[in-house]
Amino acid sequence: MVARTSARLGKIGHLAELLGRVPPAEAEIAIAYLSGELPQRQIGVGWRTLQDVPEPRQVATATLAEVDERLTAIKAQVGPGSHAAKKASVAELLGGVTRQEQTFLLRLLHGELRQGALEGVMIEAVAKAAGVPAAEVRRALTVRGWLPAVGAAALAGGVEALRGFTLEVGRPVAPMLAQSAADVAAALAKVGVPAALEWKLDGVRIQVHKSGGTVAVFTRTLDEITSQVPEVIEAALTLPAREAVLDGEAIALRLDGRPEPFQVTAARVASRTDVASARATTPLTAFFFDLLRLDGRDLLDLPGAERFAALEASLPASLLIPRLVTDVPAEGEAFFRDAVRHGHEGVVVKSLAGPYAAGRRGAGWVKVKPRHTLDLVVLAAEWGHGRRQGKLSNLHVGARDPETGGFVMLGKTFKGLTDALLTWQTARFLELAIGPTDSWVVTVRPELVVEVAFDGVQRSPRYPGGMALRFARVLRYRPDKRPDEADTVDTVRALMP
DNA sequence: TTCCGACAGTGGGGTCGCAAT
DNA sequence: ATTGCGACCCCACTATCGGAA
């Protein structure tokens, strides 16, 4: 019903009505499921485990609490034999529910609920069901980070219960996100001048919580990585502040201070088995750009300029992100070019006045990155899902190889396509198809040239040229260009770091 | 009435750790 | 030893709704 209702207010109404009927003990589970999440977060079940689903039952027997218990048990199945055990448990669970419930559970477990109601809509639904302002729910969520818990509290105790949620050292806060802009001038126009510009480092976002001698480190998705980043812990422990919540970036730097490719930083942070040797070969450096709490005082609602002043006063300069405050666009442009010249991703332009909008992609922060483009050739396309069902969506694109006269695939992209373009390209690809068109991938004669934008070229173990484009997106088709006028692999190779 | 902010959806490449083969 | 799978690090972009202007 929620999925069938396209109007957002309609969805909110349906969800609120549903929440009003859920027993209090199951409210948390209901809110989690309806917004596409599991209380267990991950349970080690993916698409493979969800194949070969048994026939559902005619009548419902399972309660939400029982399903939740079973999922907890499935998560706990680890070690030898766990694949088969998980598969059996999942089959048992799915075989014990009705067809409707099974469909819902399958989508939930796949992580593709697709009913147009994730956290943003659920916040409104919780507010409506509990009879509280949505702003109160949002505020509690920013400091608690887990809507089902916040929602259950709101349903049980109203505004008073929501007011009980405060920033707690040791529990991560949803990090503030940034919008993007094409250039520094556009970014300055969005946030207003004067504004702060900071280097955008191509590393891993870190939120560091220090309380006395205890330090915890979390990622953008609030996963804890404390044990993987001892350098960050040591840095936090040297700070004079007794208690602090810091926002920043961890990145692997080379000896000359230039950044390693993102792949290197990501691999380092992901390494858990031998952190000491990983650290010896690939040390991490932490840079901080925000301070959310300092010695018992919450700073979230302070203007950006004040938060940074507090940060500056609490950290050695070596831990601070390089930053410039200006109202002159040309100075901002120069700072941006300098960041790129140092090998970094670009800059983030920040409002001096705005609060720390936890969990929001507010207009207070705007990122600017340089953009590369290439004219590439479409080699194949994949059939889309969901709202792209029936449309050839995901393009395989390649560069010309002057040696062989053929084309070398550099990656896939589905971004930047409008509905009209999807319709057009589906028809065009079917005309150009080589071989079957009902297969997952439809191979086409390499005749269409497409202009693709991307952030950079990275080493690839997957593609024959050993290179792949990062964040490729379609800008437009180039009907004025023939495939033999497309860019070559040599051009791409020259862009490798 | 038009504009624009926020949200949801549609997927991308790379890497690690673990279990299965 | 290698492969398959799940999880998660980075992410861009369009369509849509509904409140703001």
UniProtKB/TrEMBL annotation:
Gene Ontology BP annotations: cell division; DNA biosynthetic process; DNA recombination; DNA repair; DNA replication
Keyword check for Iron-sulfur? no
Tell me what reaction this enzyme catalyses.
ATP + (deoxyribonucleotide)n-3'-hydroxyl + 5'-phospho-(deoxyribonucleotide)m = (deoxyribonucleotide)n+m + AMP + diphosphate
PROSITE patterns noted in UniProt: DNA_LIGASE_A1, DNA_LIGASE_A3
**Domain ATP-dependent DNA ligase family profile: where?**
277-401
Q: Which CDD domains match?
A: Adenylation_DNA_ligase_Arch_LigB (cd07901), OBF_DNA_ligase_Arch_LigB (cd07972)
Q: Which domain of life is it from?
A: Bacteria
Enzyme class comes to ligase
Example GO molecular function: metal ion binding
Task: Give UniProt keywords alphabetically.
Answer: ATP-binding, Cell cycle, Cell division, DNA damage, DNA recombination, DNA repair, DNA replication, Ligase, Magnesium, Metal-binding, Nucleotide-binding
Q: Which family does it belong to?
A: Belongs to the ATP-dependent DNA ligase family.
Task: Give a short account of what the protein does.
Answer: DNA ligase that seals nicks in double-stranded DNA during DNA replication, DNA recombination and DNA repair.
Question: What is this protein's record name?
Answer: DNA ligase
What organism does the UniProt record list as the source? Sinosporangium album
